[in-house]
Structure formats: structure tokens, C-alpha cells
Task: inverse folding
């Protein structure tokens, strides 16, 4: 059976109301300072950065977002019995919310639906931490040990989980078709998965509004909006 691997980036979730980082209306494009709020060093060193970061999450779009037509098309593709793995750079949990099996999704950059203590590593739901912020705690501490809490995402300056990355590389090597969807393919090592897949003989198909550094090694580049292009592409692969 043909094994289809999908590497998704922020562009798959813009139709769900979550801005990407580097697209024309992206968070970094609009406010380059926002990057400090998700960089490990400043976050740990400066309580003001943490206060702004919690505030951004409280006002942000991620927890309220719903899966869109592209997330649902991927879930339907899996349901129809195809061999599918999803590797995502996204932290929004929308592939699982759309119905893709948890065990088929690798979250390279972690999840914004949970928080983790930087001292004792205890994990708890993001909604719980945000409820504390809403109730007036501007920098909620770990209830177990008093340590600094952060989103369970991989911040700039943090390493990816080597087990998750190793699994993603194995999937890229084994894939017959590798779809890179909604990623500028600029963040490493996630982006290199597209190159690894192509080197190992996969058909690399890139669906993205803007050019990426991997376009020259792709079998096919689709520049149309993901909401229409991806469902059509998955239909073609059935
Ligand atoms: P990116 O912002 O670097 O690139 C997104 C790309 O998607 C852009 O090139 C843009 O042109 C394209 N795009 C946006 N909407 C599109 C649409 N509807 N149709 C076609 N193309 C579209 O995103 P990235 O490569 O994923 O890297 C950003 C990093 O930021 C990731 O590592 C991720 O962890 C994080 N991030 C996650 C989310 C999320 O979870 N939804 C949102 C923003 C950033």
C-alpha cells in the first residue's frame, strides 16, 4: 500500500484563524518582537516576557480554533483506509481535533494545549493555566514545586525531542508520497524532512502559497490555497 506522509506547517491552520509566522500576515512579519515571547532564554530570565507570553496566549486564537476543511480532508483520507502519517510543526492540535488518530500524528514542536513545569516537568492542561491567568495570576507557577511554567511547545533555543525527530526521519525515509503543506520550510530540522523524503525516493509534493527552498527538488509544487488544493490532491491519491 502507498504510504503517504504529510508534513504540515502553520499555513494549514490559517483558515482556522491562527496566523502563521512568515506569511504576508504572519506574526513575525507584523511584529518581529513577538519572537522573544517564544524564545527560551528571555522567557526564563525575564518575568515581564512571561507575563506578556501568558497574555498573548489568553488573547490568542489557538485554544478556540476549530479544524478546517484541510484538516478534515486528511482525517477522511485516513478513515478511508490509507496508510497515513502526519508530522506537524503546528502546536494547535487541530489534526487530532479533526479526527486523525493520535498515534498517527507526530508533533515536532510540541503542543500549546498543555503546559509543562521547567523544574519538575509536571504536565497539566493549558486551559487550567489560562484560567489562573484570567483570575489574576500574571505568571502562574507550578502547583507541585513552584517552578516556572511554560507551554509544552518547543521554544526557540530548545532542542526537539530526539525520539520524535528520529521517528519523523524514519517516516520521511519510508514514505512513497511526501506532502509538505503550509510550511515555508525554513525551520530546521523540520524542513530537512522534505529533502530526506525526496532523497529516499518519495514523490515530494509541496503545497504552499509562497516559494520554499525545497521547490527545486519537488516532483510537484502547488501554489493554490490549501483549502481547495489539499482536498483535491488527496482525492487524486486515493
Ligand atoms: P511559516 O509561517 O514559516 O510558513 C507558513 C507558510 O504557509 C507561508 O509560506 C505561507 O505563505 C503559507 N500559507 C499560509 N496560509 C496558506 C494557505 N491558506 N494556502 C497556502 N499557503 C498558505 O510556518 P512554518 O513553516 O510552519 O513554521 C513556523 C513555525 O511556527 C512552526 O515551527 C510552528 O511550530 C510555529 N507555528 C505554529 C502555528 C500553529 O500551530 N498553527 C502557527 C504559527 C506558527
Result:
Amino acid at each position: 500500500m502507498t504510504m503517504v506522509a504529510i508534513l504540515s506547517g502553520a499555513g494549514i491552520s490559517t483558515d482556522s484563524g491562527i496566523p502563521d509566522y512568515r506569511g504576508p500576515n504572519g506574526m513575525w512579519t507584523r511584529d518581529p518582537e513577538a519572537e522573544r515571547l517564544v524564545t527560551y532564554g528571555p522567557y526564563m530570565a525575564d518575568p515581564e516576557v512571561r507575563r506578556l507570553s501568558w497574555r498573548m496566549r489568553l488573547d490568542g486564537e489557538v485554544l478556540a480554533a476549530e479544524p478546517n476543511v484541510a484538516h478534515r480532508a486528511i482525517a477522511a483520507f485516513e478513515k478511508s483506509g490509507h496508510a497515513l502519517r502526519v508530522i506537524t510543526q503546528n502546536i494547535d492540535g487541530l489534526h487530532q481535533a479533526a479526527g486523525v488518530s493520535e498515534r498517527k500524528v507526530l508533533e515536532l514542536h510540541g503542543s500549546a494545549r498543555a503546559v509543562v513545569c521547567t523544574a519538575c516537568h509536571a504536565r497539566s492542561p493549558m486551559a487550567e493555566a489560562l484560567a489562573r491567568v484570567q483570575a489574576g495570576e500574571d505568571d502562574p507557577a507550578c502547583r507541585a514545586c513552584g517552578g516556572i511554567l511554560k507551554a509544552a511547545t518547543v521554544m526557540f533555543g530548545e532542542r526537539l525531542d530526539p525520539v520524535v525527530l528520529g521517528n519523523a526521519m524514519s517516516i520521511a525515509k519510508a514514505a512513497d508520497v511526501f506532502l509538505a503543506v503550509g510550511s515555508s520550510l525554513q525551520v530546521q530540522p523540520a524542513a530537512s524532512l522534505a529533502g530526506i523524503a525526496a532523497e529516499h525516493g518519495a514523490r515530494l509534493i509541496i503545497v504552499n502559497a509562497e516559494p520554499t527552498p525545497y521547490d527545486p527538488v519537488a516532483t510537484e509544487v502547488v501554489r493554490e490555497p490549501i483549502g481547495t488544493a489539499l482536498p483535491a490532491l488527496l482525492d487524486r491519491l486515493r
Observations:
- DSSP finds nine helices and nine strands in the chain.
- The pocket of nicotinamide-adenine-dinucleotide is lined by residues 9-11, 13-15, 18, 20-23, 26, 89-92, 109, 182-184, 186-187, 208-210, 225-226 (CB under 6 Å).
